[in-house]
Amino acid sequence: MSDLFEKIVSLSKRRGFIFQSSEIYGGLSATYDYGPLGVELKRNVTQRWWNAMVHRHENISGIDAAILMHPTTWKASGHVDAFADPLIDDKTSKMRYRADQLIEGHVDRLRRKGKDEDADRVYQALVDALNAEDMPKALYDIIMSEEIRSPDSGMFDWTEVREFNLMFDTTVGPVANPDNKIYLRPETAQGIFVNFHNVRETGRHQVPFGIAQIGKAFRNEIVARQFIFRMREFEQMEMQYFVKPGAQMEAFEQWREERMQWHLDNGIRASKLRWHEHEKLAHYADAAQDIQYEFPIGWQEVEGIHSRTDFDLQAHQEYSGKKMEYFDPQSQEKYIPYVVETSVGLDRTILTLLCEAYREEEVGGESRTVMKFHPRLAPITVGILPLVKKGGMPEFAHKVEDTLKEHFNTFYDEKGAIGRRYRRMDEVGTPYCVTVDGESLEDGTVTVRHRDSMQQERIAADQLAGYLINQIADWKID
Questions:
Q1: Domains of the chain
Q2: What are the per-10-residue average pLDDT scores of the chain (478 residues)?
Q3: Strands 298-309 and 326-328
Q4: Count of beta carbons in the 10 Å neighbourhood of residue 323
Q5: Residue 468 in contact with residue 404, Cβ under 8 Å?
Q6: CB within 8 Å of 52: residues ≥ 6 apart
Q7: What b/e readout covers 99-138, taking b as 16+ CB neighbours within 10 angstroms?
Q8: 265 Cβ partners below 8 Å, 6+ apart?
Q9: What is the per-residue pLDDT for 175?
Q10: Hey, which residues does 386 pair with through a beta bridge?
Q11: Which phi and psi (to 5°) does residue 286 adopt?
């Protein structure tokens, strides 16, 4: 883990963004709890996504499907038979790894050493292996021929590669037997597909239209490390867009453009984002690209845009015996729609924002840590700070806070020196601080301090809300 990444993880706990789950019992691997600031950041992100996907599109409706679904759902979707990662064990350390990620790491090391020709050769072998009929053996052969060693023990003593199903299973009812086995959903998409006709009919939709959902999913990841980037319990923000067969590529390009712009509008620098095309398409897809962000741990996927063809609706029609066809009133024909999916990890988006916002700056010979969140996403929008705890300043400050609470999430702080309070607000990403002083009591003005520039302006308290609304609307990435 890089030094920068460790600093972000440390700040996340220290300031109440993210805690290790069940920490008092030693923690539970790859599970995390969102603290007071983290949950505010999370709610801001989900609301911004919901506004962008549902409220701004007349032909997209939202649902909230159950986590537990009929087990045949996962047979139809292919998860029971094909939802697996290639697993390999280091016999010395007993650590488990994904074989494809070991090879990707080897390719990265070759490139850092300037051995681009070797890196290209191994990368092409990886692509061929991922598409091979016997993928585990093909991956194992690469690890053996390249003599890839364990990242933890440094040893070259591997088991064979085998496939490991990622679904968690449990039982329903009082008796635990195979007939009662069900699964915690590994993705939210299937809850959308089984409700295709329900939403279409009640929403009075015609193709093209979309169904959006934010919800929990569960995967028994082999390698669940790197903080909240890869967890066993996580949240997805997904939208499935149903189109006429043949129109999927046009919709695919449309949603590629819209989804990239959403990340940019969250305050992410364009230089930190890129597209990555899948080397191996999923069994249901005819096109797939990822939006990647340059984390301190390297370029990693944040969101996937997939053209899923008609695989899911066809499969559910076959397994359920219920018609999933759509009658098109324009063309007077029946067909099973194709689907374009946008799927963004909520937790990965939070990690993206934490990494993007984190800055260390030199100010007047001193260092400050500042989280430069977009003001619309910041957990606290305005800090209310009376200069001292006497002389009527706290009372005036509380009145200011009451007027701003109608528009923003605020935080009142009267403890400590004003400079120290500014630093605390900087470190949690509060874009504006309003300071009440003696002059405020005389003329009704307050000082507004800007987080990014640290400049201060004198504003009439009764004009403060409108001023801040305009400032947020005009905010630009620093």
A1: 3-71+167-354 (3.30.930.10), 84-165 (3.30.40.230), 380-473 (3.40.50.800)
A2: 88 96 92 97 98 97 96 91 84 89 91 92 90 89 94 92 86 74 94 97 96 96 80 96 97 97 97 91 86 93 96 96 95 96 97 96 88 97 96 95 95 94 96 96 96 95 95 88
A3: unpaired
A4: 11
A5: yes
A6: 258, 262
A7: bbebbeebbeebeeeeeeeebeebbebbeebbeeeebbeb
A8: none
A9: 67
A10: 436
A11: -120, 0
The predicted structure's pLDDT at residue 473:
92
Q: Which residues pair with 62 in a beta bridge?
A: 212
pLDDT the model gives residue 164:
81
CA 432 to chain centre: 26
Three-state SS sequence of the chain? CCHHHHHHHHHHHHCCCEEECCHHHCCCCCCEEECHHHHHHHHHHHHHHHHHHHHCCCCEEECCCCCECCCHHHHHHCHHHHCEEEEEEECCCCCEEEHHHHHHHHHHHHHHCCCHHHHHHHHHHHHHHHCCCCHHHHHHHHHHHHCCCCCCCCCCCECCCEEEECCCEEECCCCCCHHHEEEECCCCHHHHHCCHHHHHHHCCCCCCEEEEEEEEEECCCCCCCCHHHCCCEEEEEEEEEEECCCCHHHHHHHHHHHHHHHHHHCCCCHHHEEEEECCCCCCCCCEEEEEEEEECCEEEEEEEEEEEECHHHHHHHHHHCCCCCEEECCCCEEECCEEEEEEEEHHHHHHHHHHHHEEEEEECCEEEEEECCCCCCCCCCEEEEECCCCCCHHHHHHHHHHHHCCCCCEEECCCCCHHHHHHHHHHCCCCEEEEECHHHHHHCEEEEEECCCCCEEEEEHHHHHHHHHHHHHCCCCC
Cis peptide before 71 (omega within 30 of 0): no
